[in-house]
């Protein structure tokens, strides 16, 4: 075999797993479709205590020292909800988050930190996964590798060239996101369209010169009714290469329903007619209103360079009974295994949990002659630990879309006080990782 582990996907999950495997002396390589290191996504991730614990167990200092340098430890969680009746004042609540329990960091910088902990030779860009074939004692993994374009100097045209590359490994890990091609070949299903659109941008805002819509280290949730929700949050300070000055940064997000698909249908036309300005026009249509909740997000959007705004549809994945294929040499992690609605903020956190658990279970597997038996046992234990937990988290995340068909009847019938209790217990349960992985015996709604 060429190597112990091939990881398809150079996102947060694939890279975190590669760091964990390298720490444990396991030979792993990451294959990423993008032609080069991705520079920006216009968004950030919330690393709760479970994600922090997972990263620190993958490699000490990975979250607290390295990622903490670029992000913001949230200390205030506030919410603004519209009044129940017309003319009623917005309902504003604030609560404190214990120090060191939640880290907000731009997706790009979290990924940069992981890349910096790997040998550059471990990451192969421009490799599009095509398919895999189980073989005796492992798997053959096929990639389409982009090469330099062949230019025709007569008519100034160019033709992209590519070649097939085959890599043999003892284990293939599909960490290639919600649109996972590994999962498509292994399972054959498709992501579920949640009929929601998300807009977001990270705005450099030194000394609150553009707006003052949140406090330092604050995460603000803004309910707008009709399944529309917004967020404003401090995501830390970066060093601007242009002038060397520190720059405070705000992330804003807006989610809006697209039940009839109109937003998806008009996106291409709007972009063709209005260019990048179209995204700003499209998102502003969803924040018009007299309420304070609308005004805060509207002000942040108005202050944003249209070139910095991102838009995408939201999808999730239906839970699986198995994350491995019949050969026992292919396994899914992260969004490929359990892509979910971002409502509870558990996407990146549980992906880091996957990377941690798989790293420790694979430790010493490949160092002995009976590695094949050990591998099957390790993957079986991985599924036993991860699948029951993620089925519950995925289902709860789907509830937070607000769509009636995704919420159990018994949950709808709960009094508001009990719904809030259930939400609080969910957070308490998930954050205790790596304890209470399958449930919290002390809770009412999340028992093992």
UniProtKB/TrEMBL annotation:
It comes from Sphagnum jensenii. Residues 2-185, 327-367 form the FAD-binding domain. Gene3D superfamilies: FAD/NAD(P)-binding domain. This is FAD-binding domain-containing protein. The lineage of its organism: Eukaryota, Viridiplantae, Streptophyta, Embryophyta, Bryophyta.
